[in-house]
Amino acid sequence: MVSYNSSDVEYLGSEQVVFPFNVFESNIQGSLSYVFLNPNTTAVLMPGNHVLVVMKFKINQMDQERKIKLNGTDFSFTDGQFSPNERVGKINSGEIVVTQQVVRLHQAMWMSQNVLRMDVELKNLEEVSAIQMVLRWPDSRLAFQNIQPVQRARSWQVFVHPQQKSLGLILADMSGNNAIALGQGKILELFLAPTDGTELSGKMVIDSLIVTDRSGEKVAIAYEPTILSNNGREDFAANE
Question: What does the DSSP 8-state code read for residue 236?
């Protein structure tokens, strides 16, 4: 069960994510209850991390910076195909952060037929000294090439961990004297290289975003993805 304050948010419904369950829900006065039933007794969830369901909310009064609590309570489940055993677990409480601060991925720009540039922008209303995140994209035919701190973060250092379809990075003020003040503008230029001429599609998204201030305290911040496409790439093909 998950409960929330209905004066802060409006529940819009859910999306079933995990196979093979059917999901039944009840929403009574800001309290959500879910029942997951498996219609196929031979199909089970293997050990690991699974997204069971995605809840959608509409935020009331988006202009007010605040945190909206989502309170989880205990849940139970059964395991064992022939002799089911009931077990109990816990739903962690969470929160929805309403903020005007954002890390934004701009629309990608083709620099040539074989180089795609992505600008990363930061809008912050409080001082920022470090940013950690993972960038993910859906196509394994797109590979990391280079990254460069620019403009607001030009004196910072960047550490990267490239993997197939993702890039982990830490961007930090190692001197301790060049925190990013309040404002808005570019902080990174990311360069990617397609491994073939196949058309690109899908979203590049930000995952596991952590932003901290000079004292190491987390800064509440949102993020925005961008769409990948071949728009503009054909212009270089015509000239090369």
Answer: H
pLDDT digits (tens, 9 = 90+) for 117-133: 999 999 998 999 999 99
d(CA 230, CA 239): 16
Q: What span, in angstroms and rounded, lies between the C-alpha atoms of 177 and 188?
A: 19
Question: How is residue 98 written in tokens?
Answer: 């309403």
Degrees, nearest 5: CA angle 121-199-205? 30
Q: Which is nearest to 1 in space by CA: 33, 36, 35?
A: 33
CA distance 19 to 25: 16
CA dihedral 163, 167, 173, 179 (to 10 degrees): -170
Contact 105, 118 (CB under 8 A): yes
Surface-to-core class of residue 52, CB atoms within 10 Å of its CB (0-12 exposed, 13-18 middle, 19+ buried): middle
Helix (H, G, I), strand (E, B) or coil at 152: helix
**77-120, pLDDT tens digit by residue?**
777 555 567 777 777 777 776 777 899 999 888 888 888 899 99
**Shortest CA distance to 70 belongs to which of 60, 57, 79?**
57
3 state DSSP class of 178: coil
The angle at the Cα of 54, spanning 78 to 166, to the nearest 5 degrees, equals 105
Question: For residues 203 and 165, is the Cβ–Cβ distance under 8 A?
Answer: no
pTM given for the model: 0.64
